[in-house]
Amino acid sequence: MSKKILIIEDNRDLARLLESHLQDLAYQVDIAFDGSSGFAKADSDNYDLVILDLMLPDLDGIEICRLLRRKSSYVPILILTAKSSETDRVVGLEIGADDYVTKPFSIRELLARVKAILRRVEELTTGAKVDMPAVIRAGGIAIDPEKRSATLEGKPVDLTAKEFDLLLHFARNPGKVYTRSQLLDTVWGYGHDGYEHTVNSHINRLRAKIEKDPAHPVYIITVWGVGYKFIDNEILKELF
Questions:
Q1: Mean pLDDT confidence for 117-143
Q2: Which of 72, 90, 161, 225 is most buried by a 10 A CB count?
Q3: In whole angstroms, what is the distance from residue 81 CA to residue 53 CA?
Q4: Does residue 21 carry a pLDDT above 50?
Q5: What is the pLDDT of residues 227-239, one digit of tens each?
Q6: pTM for this model (two decimals)
Q7: What pLDDT does residue 234 have?
């Protein structure tokens, strides 16, 4: 079935250009030119991806992203932003966006990121249904891929979209060591040279949420000189 994408962008020329290129890839595309109607569409229909401009009339993209992340159902969000500072990009990811593209951008890059997000979500969903149990348990952590939720000792853990993807990827591959570049490619869905620190910051925040002592982590282990790994199942049995 063709993927369904919603574009929320007040620049009509840009929105129509994106629509045309996405339709060329056989995606179904809807457009909203302001924040209020964009959120109404996203809230009332089931989309496979929302492409969201931050600077919008009526309701800005930051608030739309927050509102969508309060819903029980999960929709991937790709942010379009003219704000290029690292702080603005981090804010976008922190509020739950899956990725961002800074204006001006190449259509080729945007389409590559759209494909990467959709591919990653499909792989996660397929893996949850076919290869993995409904809920993945590791020590005191329980991860529900379908609901995209996690608990620690029975209490909900408030994770951003990328933190959840990172935790789920680790938990599905216990004991396997990943370099920062491999994690960027697998979890973020594309090469991101020069941004290995993005992995470090996400892991530090994830540790702060799931580790009793983030300075001495039990679940996500640093393999010095290489990268990171999730605790091995055999060690897990001894600790819990």
A1: 74
A2: 161
A3: 6
A4: yes
A5: 899 988 666 666 6
A6: 0.62
A7: 66
What does the pLDDT read at residue 126? 62
8 Å CB contact between 4 and 28: yes
List domains and CATH numbers for the chain. 4-121 (3.40.50.2300), 132-239 (1.10.10.10)
Those residues with Cβ within 8 angstroms of residue 38's Cβ, 6 or more apart along the chain or in another chain:
6, 8, 32, 52, 56, 59, 64
